[in-house]
Design a protein that fits this description.
16 helices, alpha/beta, 8-stranded parallel sheet, about 325 residues
Protein backbone atom coordinates (compact mmCIF):
# COMPACT_ATOMS: atom_id res chain seq x y z
CA UNK A 1 0.00 0.00 0.00
CA UNK A 2 2.84 2.36 0.88
CA UNK A 3 4.60 1.69 -2.42
CA UNK A 4 1.42 2.25 -4.43
CA UNK A 5 0.84 5.58 -2.70
CA UNK A 6 4.38 6.69 -3.42
CA UNK A 7 4.12 5.68 -7.06
CA UNK A 8 0.94 7.73 -7.44
CA UNK A 9 2.42 10.81 -5.75
CA UNK A 10 3.13 13.64 -8.23
CA UNK A 11 6.80 14.53 -7.88
CA UNK A 12 9.40 17.17 -8.66
CA UNK A 13 13.12 16.42 -9.13
CA UNK A 14 15.56 19.34 -8.93
CA UNK A 15 18.90 17.50 -8.67
CA UNK A 16 19.52 14.91 -11.39
CA UNK A 17 22.85 14.51 -13.19
CA UNK A 18 22.50 13.42 -16.81
CA UNK A 19 25.68 11.33 -16.88
CA UNK A 20 24.82 9.67 -13.58
CA UNK A 21 21.58 8.16 -14.84
CA UNK A 22 22.39 6.16 -17.97
CA UNK A 23 20.45 2.95 -18.35
CA UNK A 24 22.79 -0.08 -18.29
CA UNK A 25 21.17 -1.26 -21.54
CA UNK A 26 22.03 2.08 -23.14
CA UNK A 27 25.61 1.84 -21.87
CA UNK A 28 25.89 -1.53 -23.62
CA UNK A 29 24.40 -0.24 -26.86
CA UNK A 30 26.50 2.92 -27.02
CA UNK A 31 29.70 1.09 -26.10
CA UNK A 32 29.11 -1.44 -28.85
CA UNK A 33 28.49 1.32 -31.40
CA UNK A 34 31.76 3.11 -30.69
CA UNK A 35 33.92 0.10 -29.90
CA UNK A 36 34.45 0.48 -26.15
CA UNK A 37 35.05 -2.91 -24.55
CA UNK A 38 32.84 -3.76 -21.59
CA UNK A 39 33.11 -6.50 -18.96
CA UNK A 40 31.78 -9.90 -19.92
CA UNK A 41 29.18 -10.27 -17.21
CA UNK A 42 26.25 -8.11 -16.11
CA UNK A 43 27.56 -7.95 -12.55
CA UNK A 44 30.95 -6.70 -13.72
CA UNK A 45 29.31 -4.03 -15.87
CA UNK A 46 27.12 -2.86 -13.02
CA UNK A 47 30.18 -2.63 -10.79
CA UNK A 48 31.53 -0.01 -13.20
CA UNK A 49 28.29 1.97 -13.02
CA UNK A 50 27.07 1.56 -9.42
CA UNK A 51 28.77 2.56 -6.20
CA UNK A 52 28.75 0.08 -3.37
CA UNK A 53 28.24 0.45 0.35
CA UNK A 54 31.98 0.51 0.89
CA UNK A 55 32.44 3.73 -1.11
CA UNK A 56 34.60 5.94 1.08
CA UNK A 57 34.16 9.48 -0.28
CA UNK A 58 32.72 11.83 -2.87
CA UNK A 59 35.97 11.60 -4.84
CA UNK A 60 35.58 7.81 -5.09
CA UNK A 61 31.91 8.20 -6.00
CA UNK A 62 32.83 10.49 -8.89
CA UNK A 63 35.00 7.75 -10.44
CA UNK A 64 31.81 6.05 -11.63
CA UNK A 65 31.29 8.84 -14.17
CA UNK A 66 34.30 7.89 -16.30
CA UNK A 67 32.57 5.32 -18.51
CA UNK A 68 29.43 7.42 -19.10
CA UNK A 69 31.58 10.43 -20.03
CA UNK A 70 33.41 8.36 -22.65
CA UNK A 71 30.08 7.35 -24.20
CA UNK A 72 28.61 10.87 -24.32
CA UNK A 73 30.83 12.59 -26.87
CA UNK A 74 28.37 12.84 -29.79
CA UNK A 75 25.20 14.82 -30.31
CA UNK A 76 23.21 11.66 -31.03
CA UNK A 77 24.27 9.97 -27.81
CA UNK A 78 23.61 13.06 -25.71
CA UNK A 79 20.19 13.45 -27.26
CA UNK A 80 19.35 9.80 -26.61
CA UNK A 81 20.25 9.77 -22.94
CA UNK A 82 18.51 13.11 -22.34
CA UNK A 83 15.33 11.69 -23.86
CA UNK A 84 15.63 8.57 -21.73
CA UNK A 85 16.21 10.63 -18.58
CA UNK A 86 12.87 12.37 -19.05
CA UNK A 87 11.19 9.08 -19.93
CA UNK A 88 12.57 7.43 -16.79
CA UNK A 89 11.45 10.36 -14.65
CA UNK A 90 7.94 10.08 -16.02
CA UNK A 91 7.81 6.45 -14.84
CA UNK A 92 8.26 7.71 -11.27
CA UNK A 93 5.37 10.15 -11.85
CA UNK A 94 7.74 13.13 -11.95
CA UNK A 95 5.81 16.12 -13.31
CA UNK A 96 8.80 18.46 -13.48
CA UNK A 97 12.52 17.73 -13.63
CA UNK A 98 15.65 19.84 -13.80
CA UNK A 99 18.47 17.86 -15.40
CA UNK A 100 22.03 19.12 -15.08
CA UNK A 101 25.21 18.39 -16.99
CA UNK A 102 28.71 19.79 -17.49
CA UNK A 103 29.11 20.56 -21.21
CA UNK A 104 32.92 20.81 -20.92
CA UNK A 105 33.01 17.03 -20.35
CA UNK A 106 31.42 16.27 -23.72
CA UNK A 107 33.61 18.00 -26.30
CA UNK A 108 36.54 15.58 -26.48
CA UNK A 109 35.62 14.35 -29.97
CA UNK A 110 34.90 17.65 -31.65
CA UNK A 111 31.52 18.81 -30.42
CA UNK A 112 31.36 22.49 -29.54
CA UNK A 113 29.86 23.51 -26.21
CA UNK A 114 26.90 24.93 -28.09
CA UNK A 115 26.34 21.66 -29.96
CA UNK A 116 26.53 19.64 -26.74
CA UNK A 117 23.96 21.84 -25.00
CA UNK A 118 21.67 21.87 -28.04
CA UNK A 119 21.76 18.06 -28.26
CA UNK A 120 20.77 17.61 -24.63
CA UNK A 121 17.98 20.16 -24.96
CA UNK A 122 16.68 18.43 -28.10
CA UNK A 123 16.49 15.11 -26.28
CA UNK A 124 14.81 16.63 -23.24
CA UNK A 125 12.25 18.47 -25.35
CA UNK A 126 11.43 15.28 -27.26
CA UNK A 127 11.05 13.48 -23.95
CA UNK A 128 8.75 16.18 -22.64
CA UNK A 129 6.56 15.95 -25.73
CA UNK A 130 6.37 12.15 -25.46
CA UNK A 131 5.65 11.91 -21.73
CA UNK A 132 4.21 15.22 -20.54
CA UNK A 133 6.95 15.55 -17.90
CA UNK A 134 8.19 19.13 -18.09
CA UNK A 135 12.00 19.22 -18.29
CA UNK A 136 14.53 22.04 -17.99
CA UNK A 137 18.35 22.11 -18.03
CA UNK A 138 21.01 23.46 -15.66
CA UNK A 139 24.59 23.82 -16.91
CA UNK A 140 27.39 22.81 -14.56
CA UNK A 141 30.72 24.51 -13.98
CA UNK A 142 33.28 22.15 -12.47
CA UNK A 143 35.44 23.04 -9.48
CA UNK A 144 38.58 21.41 -10.86
CA UNK A 145 38.37 23.17 -14.23
CA UNK A 146 40.24 26.38 -15.03
CA UNK A 147 38.06 29.40 -14.44
CA UNK A 148 38.33 30.23 -18.17
CA UNK A 149 36.39 27.04 -18.95
CA UNK A 150 33.64 28.05 -16.54
CA UNK A 151 33.38 31.49 -18.14
CA UNK A 152 32.65 29.56 -21.36
CA UNK A 153 29.90 27.61 -19.59
CA UNK A 154 28.34 30.87 -18.45
CA UNK A 155 28.37 32.05 -22.07
CA UNK A 156 26.31 28.99 -23.01
CA UNK A 157 23.87 29.65 -20.19
CA UNK A 158 23.40 33.16 -21.57
CA UNK A 159 22.91 31.80 -25.08
CA UNK A 160 20.26 29.24 -24.06
CA UNK A 161 18.51 30.91 -21.13
CA UNK A 162 14.80 30.95 -21.88
CA UNK A 163 15.31 28.22 -24.49
CA UNK A 164 15.34 25.30 -22.08
CA UNK A 165 18.27 26.29 -19.85
CA UNK A 166 17.17 27.74 -16.51
CA UNK A 167 20.27 28.00 -14.33
CA UNK A 168 23.92 27.40 -13.55
CA UNK A 169 25.64 25.14 -11.01
CA UNK A 170 29.07 24.47 -9.49
CA UNK A 171 29.90 20.81 -8.84
CA UNK A 172 32.80 18.40 -8.44
CA UNK A 173 35.41 17.77 -5.75
CA UNK A 174 34.18 20.13 -3.04
CA UNK A 175 36.86 19.24 -0.50
CA UNK A 176 39.69 19.90 -2.96
CA UNK A 177 38.36 23.02 -4.66
CA UNK A 178 36.51 25.59 -2.51
CA UNK A 179 33.72 27.60 -4.14
CA UNK A 180 35.52 30.95 -3.95
CA UNK A 181 37.90 29.80 -6.71
CA UNK A 182 35.06 30.42 -9.18
CA UNK A 183 33.35 33.33 -7.47
CA UNK A 184 33.83 35.82 -10.36
CA UNK A 185 31.84 33.60 -12.74
CA UNK A 186 28.93 33.40 -10.33
CA UNK A 187 29.08 37.07 -9.46
CA UNK A 188 28.53 37.74 -13.17
CA UNK A 189 25.77 35.13 -13.41
CA UNK A 190 24.02 36.84 -10.51
CA UNK A 191 24.42 40.25 -12.17
CA UNK A 192 22.80 38.80 -15.29
CA UNK A 193 19.84 37.47 -13.27
CA UNK A 194 20.65 33.80 -13.90
CA UNK A 195 19.38 31.44 -11.16
CA UNK A 196 22.22 29.76 -9.26
CA UNK A 197 22.47 26.46 -7.40
CA UNK A 198 25.73 25.31 -5.82
CA UNK A 199 26.86 21.89 -4.57
CA UNK A 200 27.89 22.59 -0.98
CA UNK A 201 27.94 20.96 2.43
CA UNK A 202 28.43 17.53 0.90
CA UNK A 203 32.18 16.90 1.15
CA UNK A 204 33.02 20.09 3.05
CA UNK A 205 31.52 21.85 6.04
CA UNK A 206 28.99 24.61 6.60
CA UNK A 207 31.54 27.26 5.61
CA UNK A 208 31.23 25.96 2.04
CA UNK A 209 27.47 26.54 2.18
CA UNK A 210 28.00 30.03 3.59
CA UNK A 211 30.36 30.93 0.74
CA UNK A 212 27.96 29.48 -1.81
CA UNK A 213 25.18 31.75 -0.54
CA UNK A 214 26.98 34.97 0.33
CA UNK A 215 29.84 34.74 -2.17
CA UNK A 216 28.28 32.93 -5.13
CA UNK A 217 24.63 34.03 -4.63
CA UNK A 218 23.13 30.53 -4.54
CA UNK A 219 19.34 30.43 -4.50
CA UNK A 220 19.46 26.69 -3.84
CA UNK A 221 22.05 24.38 -2.29
CA UNK A 222 22.88 20.97 -3.68
CA UNK A 223 22.91 18.62 -0.67
CA UNK A 224 23.65 20.95 2.28
CA UNK A 225 24.05 18.00 4.64
CA UNK A 226 26.45 19.81 6.98
CA UNK A 227 24.30 22.92 7.42
CA UNK A 228 23.69 22.13 11.11
CA UNK A 229 27.34 22.99 11.88
CA UNK A 230 26.33 26.68 11.63
CA UNK A 231 23.08 27.47 13.51
CA UNK A 232 23.12 31.08 12.34
CA UNK A 233 23.38 30.03 8.72
CA UNK A 234 20.60 27.49 9.23
CA UNK A 235 18.36 30.28 10.51
CA UNK A 236 19.26 32.44 7.48
CA UNK A 237 18.45 29.62 5.06
CA UNK A 238 15.14 29.02 6.79
CA UNK A 239 14.19 32.70 6.75
CA UNK A 240 15.23 33.21 3.13
CA UNK A 241 13.63 29.92 2.02
CA UNK A 242 16.81 28.76 0.31
CA UNK A 243 16.00 25.23 -0.79
CA UNK A 244 18.20 22.24 -0.01
CA UNK A 245 18.38 19.67 -2.82
CA UNK A 246 18.87 16.64 -0.61
CA UNK A 247 19.80 13.19 -1.95
CA UNK A 248 19.47 10.55 0.74
CA UNK A 249 21.12 7.50 -0.85
CA UNK A 250 23.90 9.49 -2.48
CA UNK A 251 24.68 11.23 0.81
CA UNK A 252 25.06 7.86 2.55
CA UNK A 253 27.28 6.52 -0.24
CA UNK A 254 29.62 9.53 -0.30
CA UNK A 255 29.76 9.52 3.52
CA UNK A 256 28.26 12.98 3.75
CA UNK A 257 26.02 11.22 6.27
CA UNK A 258 27.22 8.27 8.31
CA UNK A 259 24.03 6.18 8.34
CA UNK A 260 20.44 6.23 7.13
CA UNK A 261 19.09 7.30 10.50
CA UNK A 262 21.86 9.87 10.99
CA UNK A 263 20.96 11.84 7.86
CA UNK A 264 19.69 15.29 8.91
CA UNK A 265 16.80 15.53 6.43
CA UNK A 266 14.11 14.98 9.08
CA UNK A 267 15.74 17.46 11.46
CA UNK A 268 15.95 20.11 8.74
CA UNK A 269 12.39 19.53 7.59
CA UNK A 270 11.07 19.79 11.15
CA UNK A 271 13.07 22.99 11.61
CA UNK A 272 11.17 24.62 8.74
CA UNK A 273 13.90 24.37 6.11
CA UNK A 274 12.77 24.16 2.49
CA UNK A 275 13.85 20.56 1.97
CA UNK A 276 13.50 18.78 -1.38
CA UNK A 277 14.06 15.11 -2.27
CA UNK A 278 16.19 14.04 -5.24
CA UNK A 279 18.07 11.07 -6.65
CA UNK A 280 21.32 12.84 -7.62
CA UNK A 281 22.34 9.96 -9.92
CA UNK A 282 19.87 7.14 -10.46
CA UNK A 283 22.40 4.73 -11.95
CA UNK A 284 25.50 5.58 -9.94
CA UNK A 285 23.48 5.43 -6.71
CA UNK A 286 21.32 2.54 -8.02
CA UNK A 287 18.08 4.21 -6.99
CA UNK A 288 14.86 5.79 -8.21
CA UNK A 289 12.89 8.70 -6.84
CA UNK A 290 10.19 6.31 -5.64
CA UNK A 291 12.84 4.35 -3.72
CA UNK A 292 14.15 7.55 -2.15
CA UNK A 293 10.66 8.26 -0.79
CA UNK A 294 10.34 4.72 0.52
CA UNK A 295 13.62 5.13 2.41
CA UNK A 296 12.44 8.43 3.88
CA UNK A 297 9.32 6.72 5.20
CA UNK A 298 11.30 3.74 6.50
CA UNK A 299 14.23 5.50 8.13
CA UNK A 300 12.76 8.90 9.03
CA UNK A 301 9.05 8.23 9.49
CA UNK A 302 7.92 10.70 6.84
CA UNK A 303 4.21 10.60 6.06
CA UNK A 304 2.55 11.11 2.69
CA UNK A 305 1.37 14.60 3.58
CA UNK A 306 4.96 15.59 4.39
CA UNK A 307 6.23 14.13 1.13
CA UNK A 308 3.55 16.11 -0.69
CA UNK A 309 4.73 19.25 1.08
CA UNK A 310 8.34 18.64 0.03
CA UNK A 311 7.23 18.35 -3.59
CA UNK A 312 5.39 21.65 -3.28
CA UNK A 313 8.59 23.14 -1.82
CA UNK A 314 10.52 21.79 -4.82
CA UNK A 315 8.10 23.25 -7.35
CA UNK A 316 8.20 26.62 -5.63
CA UNK A 317 12.01 26.50 -5.71
CA UNK A 318 12.22 25.42 -9.36
CA UNK A 319 13.99 27.73 -11.79
CA UNK A 320 11.37 27.24 -14.51
CA UNK A 321 9.47 30.17 -16.05
CA UNK A 322 6.81 31.61 -13.74
CA UNK A 323 3.86 30.79 -15.98
CA UNK A 324 4.92 27.14 -16.29
CA UNK A 325 5.55 26.93 -12.56
CA UNK A 326 2.15 28.32 -11.67
CA UNK A 327 0.43 25.91 -14.05
CA UNK A 328 2.15 22.87 -12.54
CA UNK A 329 1.57 24.13 -9.00
CA UNK A 330 -2.15 24.59 -9.61
CA UNK A 331 -2.53 21.22 -11.30
CA UNK A 332 -0.60 19.04 -8.85
CA UNK A 333 0.54 20.82 -5.70
CA UNK A 334 -2.22 23.11 -4.42
Amino acid sequence: MMTNSIEQLPKVELHYHLDGGLRPSTVKALAQEIGIALPDTEDELLSKLHVTDDCTSLAEYLEKFQLPAALLQTAANLKRVAYEAVEDASKDNVKYIEIRFAPQLHIEQGLSLKEAVAAVLAGMQAGEQATGTVARLILICLRNHPIEWNWQVLEQVQAFIGKGVVGIDLAGDEAGYPPELHQPVFEEAFRLGIPITIHAGEAAGAESIRTAIFGLHARRIGHGVRLAQDPGLLQHIREQQIALEMCLSSNIQTKAATAWGAHPIRRYFDAGITVTVNTDNTTVSNTTLNQEYERLMLHHDFHMSELQRMNAYAMEAAFVEDEVKSGIMQKYFC
